[in-house]
Write a structure and sequence with these properties.
Helix content: 10-25%
Largest sheet: 4 strands, mixed
Number of helices: 3
Distance between the termini: 68 Å
Amino acid sequence: MTALPVYRWRLAPEGLATFRQLRALGLRPGGQPVVAQLERPRRRRGPLVAYLYRVDLARPVRPMTPAKRAALAKANAARQVCPECGQDAGYRIPASLGMCSPCAYPDTTLAA
């Protein structure tokens, strides 16, 4: 079992990139293994860790197909419907609440 090389924040060598950096370049890891690890120190907690991939082995991002686009739109629309009242909230319902704001906080309605 080999250990991954660890680089400090902003000191990774050229040719390595994080997943987000690859995505910004229009690339994806493409099944390659993680090559190294990047650590950003924090004061009171453990370091933030990001995995590094080789840019030369990365592949282009697959294009969005019409079927994928339709499925994504349907999923996003479903996340706007309140399970309590069944109405479209007009925004994505937070997972922490699990329902729209009027259903979660019924006492805070404004009296006219």
